[in-house]
């Protein structure tokens, strides 16, 4: 049995990660959980029948030697915690956003050895997305795409101290909400070349943006319009891909099934109905672990959405187009996304 640990026992751990672990109970078992709040971690362990309750990541790694660690803590903690897990020889599955900058992502990757890192990006793994990627060559050349994450988060949502702050959340809805739809778009259209963007803080009392918009040009020549918002009363996650021979659309909110997809192509017929979920991604992650890697959403795949987000923030802050090729060490947005390094 693969021995798993959960670090951070807030909402996402119980809502998404424990059900995913239960779905793979034939080959993985949660043996420990960690939280700085002792009462909360003990309650979590009692609720989910997890034996080891810890308030220190280092103590847990030393005592339990887990094979896989689920990182469910706030974003500003991810990089240091991921490195600690990797140096202990564990694989680590990191909730989005994986970290606060490309510099931190590269630090995580550099720490890989016996342990490997993977980023949660469950929308890549539903049957609709898999079918689109397989079918795309039959649909002709990609031309136009829309990538829309229009959600609603009120002022109370941002009362959690780490939310809405550059130092702890790393960004606004671009970083914390739209990242999933943008990653799914990237998995279909491939690498991008250029981005032009604007951001605004229109309504929420936060440091980061509450709205962002961008136009993206891809290596293929295709162009996409991207919208991210936490001010939209009618919530929707929407993707549209226009090819020379067909249009494919996805409308959902926090997860999809086949019924949420539509297409003008007679070829559109996903062979199974696998919902996008942590369960779907964890299954592939465990497959990779058992064969010795590499994990899905590791390395370059895990970095791609963060590259696009970095380019978006850089373009919005500077008022200039940003090329993907420019986002290397030394770029003023490589180490942080709030523009403090740019003048």
From TrEMBL:
Top-level lineage group: Bacteria
Regions crossing the membrane: none
Domain (Gfo/Idh/MocA-like oxidoreductase N-terminal): residue spans on this chain: 2-115
GFO/IDH/MocA-like oxidoreductase domain boundaries: 138-247
Protein name: Gfo/Idh/MocA family oxidoreductase
